[in-house]
Amino acid sequence: MSLEQRVSRLEQIIELQQDKETLRNWMGYCLKREDWRGVMDAAADIREIVAKLEILAEQSQLEPKEAAKSYCSDCNCGKAEGCGA
Q1: Which of 4, 6, 44, 80 has the largest count of CB atoms under 10 Å?
Q2: How confident is the model at residue 3 (pLDDT cuts 50, 70, 90)?
């Protein structure tokens, strides 16, 4: 796999992680409002994202846990969430 392809896949992984975090926050909001349909919709979307992350991990020859870990949403540095930047 070329370097450009690997970078593209890693960018996709980061974008999916950001989407997953947004949905987790939305799910929390729905829980507080007891909006069970919203919770169900968010959970379904999160399952789809996790499946996509597993596929990208296989294609990128990464371990699934590495692809599924959260990336810093503050500065998008690729480190674990909340790097303090």
Answers
A1: 6
A2: confident
